[in-house]
């Protein structure tokens, strides 16, 4: 710890004449000078030493105020040479502005003060170097251990005696130490938006916070905070940034290779299912036992990545491990009925299609079902659509909505035009007739018209469309158009 004015005064027997409330200021350095305006030669934090050679009762007040502007830690005034005592105006002004003033008796040479401060600064620098070196070693051991980035973040928080957050490119918390540090994340949102590269220092409440970007293709941030971060803290944070950047980049490269391998195995399942399953068991220690539910999950790329990461991280408590891989715009998941609900819970905010249970040999069919149901879920903005329910709704659900709408409008246009002119009710009559499978009496009774009237209307339908209602194919087309 740096030497304070209070400690210096106590060790050398210096008398405090003003600014008693600020004696715990740390002394950055000592600078003796007789200049009445030494500000150009000061950096702030110094203990300024003077004998007051150029000072008197008239100039002392302005002199003190200039020192305050220069942010000096305090003033040591040597008596017994130029002045037998410190000018009263200097003491009064210093007391007013809160500047500590130490009276240095003639028997105490300025070199004794310089030596005491120099030794304290050297000891503090040495302690900082030792602490930094030990911190770097501990962080390196954490980085090469099994704990991964989380272990580095936890060790970093202990080393700086503060808190640390590892954030992804969107500002979401990846790791937090301690867990309560997550509460600081919302206050960092503005800093992250402004930070493109490098580091920023901010304040959140009583905490000084340094935020640094990580040098990784996936991009991310490290935020570290405490009451005040010293030089050793900052060196340790810089080490953590380098280690985390390296670890995350290696993880990203390894993860990309694993994902590509999963996709290759998914393709292999359609051609050589037994070989693919053997590879799954060799590489991941297991594979779901058929029959499988095949799930195809789609959504934004970011949401799919989040799902993939969740599937990679969590499966310890499952009765068996699902297999999952990327396939175009889908994350495809193979699982048993026992794990299906767990998987669906992880797909929050996405659109999932679920196949009927399929055997190993029928995987390709199950994949087509799942993808078709997933597209239907996306079109309906539904979280889950099961192929069994989707197919049960009929052929209408299997046709692209825009194509179906254009088809229906074209086919029914002459009938709608006829009805709009007030010359009949062909569309309603046609729908009723088809619903009763062409039974004239039942349909006529439903409509409340004579069966001959209904026959005349159906002949008009044939005339306007140019096709005969005795064709099952044409009846199916008309029914599809009316459903749309």
UniProtKB/TrEMBL annotation:
Signal peptide: none annotated. Residues 426-483 form the PucR C-terminal helix-turn-helix domain. Pfam families: HTH_30 (PF13556), PucR (PF07905). InterPro entries: CdaR-like_regulators (IPR051448), PucR_C-HTH_dom (IPR025736), PucR_C-HTH_sf (IPR042070), PucR_dom (IPR012914). It comes from the Bacteria. Residues 14-120 form the Purine catabolism PurC-like domain. This is Purine catabolism regulatory protein.
């Amino acid at each position: 710890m740096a030497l304070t004015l209070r400690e210096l005064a106590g060790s050398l027997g210096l008398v405090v004449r003003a600014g008693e409330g600020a004696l715990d200021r740390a002394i950055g350095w000592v600078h003796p000078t007789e200049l009445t305006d030494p500000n150009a030669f000061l950096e702030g934090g110094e203990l300024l030493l003077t004998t007051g050679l150029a000072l008197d009762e008239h100039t002392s007040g302005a002199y003190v105020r200039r020192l305050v502007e220069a942010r000096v830690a305090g003033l040591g005034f040597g008596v017994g040479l130029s002045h037998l005592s410190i000018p009263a105006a200097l003491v009064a002004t210093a007391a007013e502005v809160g500047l500590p003033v130490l009276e240095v008796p003639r028997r105490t040479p300025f070199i004794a003060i310089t030596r005491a401060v120099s030794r304290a600064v050297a000891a503090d620098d040495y302690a900082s170097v030792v602490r930094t070196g030990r911190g770097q070693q501990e962080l390196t051991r954490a980085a090469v251990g099994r704990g991964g980035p989380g272990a580095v973040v936890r060790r970093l928080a202990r080393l700086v005696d503060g808190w640390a957050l590892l954030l992804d490119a969107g500002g979401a918390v990846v790791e937090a130490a301690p867990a309560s540090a997550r509460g600081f994340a919302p206050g960092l949102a503005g800093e992250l938006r402004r930070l493109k590269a490098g580091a920023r220092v901010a304040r959140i409440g009583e905490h000084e916070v340094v935020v640094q970007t990580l040098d990784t293709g996936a991009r991310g941030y490290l935020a570290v905070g405490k009451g005040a971060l010293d030089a050793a803290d900052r060196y340790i944070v810089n080490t953590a940034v380098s280690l985390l950047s390296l670890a995350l980049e290696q993880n990203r490269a390894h993860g990309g290779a694993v994902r590509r391998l999963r996709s290759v195995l998914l393709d292999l399942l359609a051609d050589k299912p037994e070989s693919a399953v053997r590879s799954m068991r060799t590489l991941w220690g297991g594979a779901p036992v058929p029959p499988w539910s095949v799930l195809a999950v789609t959504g934004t790329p970011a949401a799919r990545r989040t799902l993939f990461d969740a599937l990679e991280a969590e499966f310890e408590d499952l009765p068996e491990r699902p297999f999952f891989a990327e396939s175009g715009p889908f994350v495809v998941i193979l699982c048993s009925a026992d794990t299906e609900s767990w998987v669906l819970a992880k797909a929050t905010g996405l659109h999932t299609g679920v196949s009927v249970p399929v055997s190993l040999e029928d995987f390709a069919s199950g994949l087509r079902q799942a993808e078709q149901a997933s597209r239907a879920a996306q079109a309906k903005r539904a979280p889950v659509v099961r192929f069994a329910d989707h197919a049960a709704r009929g052929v209408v659900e299997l046709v692209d909505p825009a194509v179906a709408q254009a088809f229906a409008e074209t086919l029914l246009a002459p009938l709608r035009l006829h009805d709009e002119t007030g010359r009949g009710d062909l569309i309603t009559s046609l729908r009723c007739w088809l619903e009763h499978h062409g039974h004239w009496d039942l349909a006529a009774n439903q409509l409340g018209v004579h069966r001959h009237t209904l026959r005349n209307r159906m002949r008009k339908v044939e005339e306007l469309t140019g096709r005969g209602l005795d064709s099952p194919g044409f009846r199916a087309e008309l029914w599809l158009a009316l459903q749309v």
